[in-house]
User: Fold this.
Amino acid sequence: MPRAPTKKKTTLERASRSRKPAAAPTEAPVMTAGKPPPLKVLFVTSECAPFAKTGGLADVAGALPKALRALNIDARVVMPLYAGMPWNELEILDGALHVPMWWGTAHARVRTGKLPNSDVPIYCLEYNRYFDRPYLYGPPAEGYNDNLERFTFLSRGSLEVCKALGFYPDVIHCNDWQTALVPVLVNTVEWLQPLHASATVYSIHNLAYQGIFDGGGMFITGLGREHYNAGEFEHFGALNLTKAALRHSTLLSTVSPTYAREIQTGEYGNGLDGILAERRDDLVGILNGIDVDEWNPMKDPFTPEPFAAADPRGKAACKAALQKEAGFPVRPDVPVFGIVGRLTHQKGFDVLAHALDRVLGWDVQIVLLGTGDEDAQRFFAYVDAHRGDRFRAWLRFDNGRAHRIEAGADFFLMPSRFEPCGLNQMYSLRYGTLPIVRATGGLMDTVSNYDEKTAGGTGFVFNDLHPESLANTIGWAVSTWFDRPKHIEIMRDRAMRQDFSWDRAARAYQDLYERAKQRRRGG
Ligand code: ADP
Assistant:
């Protein structure tokens, strides 16, 4: 990736060379007009929408800091500069960022800009040796061999950015294993340094990804071998970054209340349930919001007609367009089921595969958009080839089509094995597309089950991850569609009126940050 220098401004080099903090974090807060200064939060992340995205974390990173700013929190984002990002639209901070690595010092560049439509500064660490690659973490189903080194660089680099800018956060908010070293570094190499005063909040977006490496790689973290023990990094004979973060962070969070409870159990804890249960009083579940501007059925550039709860008529046109796009007969009377997501074990599509034969025996249409496991892709391509009259599989990543599915479908399928929060069911609700979900994680916290007596609920919920249960629940939705259309209308209206804006979540994070700050300062 060519790196033509663009505009320059001074800040980084001077501060970074002098190594003097611009303001000591321990000094008394400056009271401006009777108000304390805004809370300072550094949000460290390995991905951030719209710049680089593989999953829900990117959506959180792109939205939460903006919502925090609206609460007068000085939130800033640090992430790597990956290939494919709009690097020439970002301003280069003058000078080099000196990042200590196991092999010496990495001299990186920092490019800065703002999150789109906001005042949130974003600092992108430019170090081509680690990040100028086709993938964020590695080719599908593989990780790059040097991922421990790459994300050690991100963790260490994010702290060096703070020092270089003289930005001493009250809270450093770390997200998933790629940033899990930060809380450990703050407690160790920053000991008695200004950054030691920063509280750390570690958010689990998906406990299935823990950052597990060979124990022999401990030296790459730059930390002494003494930290490779069962209380910190060592876990079942391997180096586990998440485990160390769970021990070292001031407070912990995850992305839904139900997932926060589930991960304290053997079934969902992925081996870390013991530590999480020990820290249960320091662990909160805060449901993600969604970007209500991007996912707005009234103003969606990807769909043919706008609609809203107050005037849902446009949804019929979206449905017809989706049926056309899928090559299905355009029939308003047939229920259309949408599926969007990564084709991985987590999402339970293997269970759907076993239920599909029965479901395709009914008068339904199903569209699937997803990429992932090769076996799953092959299977769904096969069904597409043989049942193309009512099953369409698009095996690629296509944001516009994801929008059209949310808008045009009547029901949305998420038979997840586990789901920390899940965004698609919230998009569905907002587009009046009733979700059919398994009772797990964030799905349980966002979708309420249909009640035939009262027309209550916003979707259809099942418990057992079994093809029979899934097919029965799809059948229940189909019979409701044909036999009680009024109920579908009522549920749709209720679904579209749910509030999933980031505002609510940002307030919960604000409380969490305040608590973390108090805890760190011994309050
Ligand atoms: P996860 O983070 O586990 O992948 P989420 O439901 O939290 O699941 O978020 C997935 C995000 O990625 C959503 O914004 C969804 O629309 C999007 N997405 C997943 N697969 C595709 C695809 N094939 N095409 C377009 N968007 C996709």
Q: What stands out?
A: Residues 55-56, 59, 340-342, 369-371, 397-399, 402, 421-424 surround adenosine-5'-diphosphate (CB under 6 Å). The CA atoms of residues 80 and 193 lie 24 Å apart.
